Amino acid sequence: MAGRPYTSLLLLLSLLLLVTLSPVAEAYTKLRPQDCKPKCTYRCSATSHKKPCKFFCEKCCAKCLCVPPGTYGHKQVCPCYNNWKTQEGKPKCP
Q1: Listed range (12-21, 64-73, 84-93) with the worst mean pLDDT
Q2: In a domain? residue 15
Q3: Does any domain span residue 4?
Q4: Interacting residues of 44 by C-beta distance below 8 A, sequence separation 6+
Q5: Where is the secretion signal located (predicted)?
Q6: What is the domain extent for residue 74?
Q7: Does a structural domain hold residue 12?
């Protein structure tokens, strides 16, 4: 019986954390088409293949209205961006 208050407290804290962090994910998923170019410029800033990176990033952003944070990885934040594949089954979006 003693574990029950802790379970409820843990559940409440988890819910508060989820509500607090949800605007962070929304910032990457609710882009307008005009927001794509600057987001992709930053996304592709660390690669040596900037031109193709920006081309595909902007194409993906136009379709998905989302660009993952950072210059690499974090694609799980944008499921559409993450799941779009080439005909060979490779990721289309950088």
Answers
A1: 12-21
A2: no
A3: no
A4: 50, 53, 54, 57, 71, 94
A5: 1-27
A6: 24-94
A7: no
